[in-house]
Amino acid sequence: MAGKVLAKTHHFALHANVLNPALPMQSLGAMVPKRWARRAVTRNAIKRQIYNVSAAFAAALPVQAYVLRLRAGFDRSVFMSATSDALKSAVRAELLQLFALAAERSKIQKLAQP
Q1: Under a CB-based contact definition with an 8 Å cutoff, are residues 105 and 7 in contact?
Q2: Per-residue pLDDT at 14 exceeds 80
Q3: Domain annotation for the chain: domains and CATH numbers
Q4: For residues 26 and 73, what is the distance between their CA atoms, to the nearest angstrom?
Q5: Is the dihedral angle over the CA atoms 14, 20, 21, 25 positive or is it negative?
Q6: What share of the chain is helix, strand, coil (3-state, %, to 5)?
Q7: What are phi and psi of 65, to 5 degrees?
Q8: In whole numbers, what is the pLDDT of the chain averaged over residues?
Q9: In sequence order, what are the residues at sequence separation of 6 or more whose Cβ sits closer than 8 angstroms to the Cβ of residue 98?
């Protein structure tokens, strides 16, 4: 979390921090606080979506340590069920948007480096 915010959407923020050069592996952590997702089944469903979507974008992002943080809750009046298909598709769509933005920004930063 001490690193820079690479990308943000309404519900999520992706933080990036440079790893030790001796360890050339990429890592991703998911932080889904109880404050924003009260039910454990909802938190776990969101984390599953985070890990599934991030696997598709792993090659597009540079080797760094990433923390994806839920920064706002999904409205329970709209998504009544903790594991509804509507919630899963809304989370997935927003994560796809977030990772696409992060991949684009990291590509621009890579081109700007001397």
Answers
A1: yes
A2: yes
A3: 4-112 (3.30.230.10)
A4: 27
A5: negative
A6: 45, 20, 40
A7: -95, 130
A8: 87
A9: 7, 8, 9, 12, 14, 68
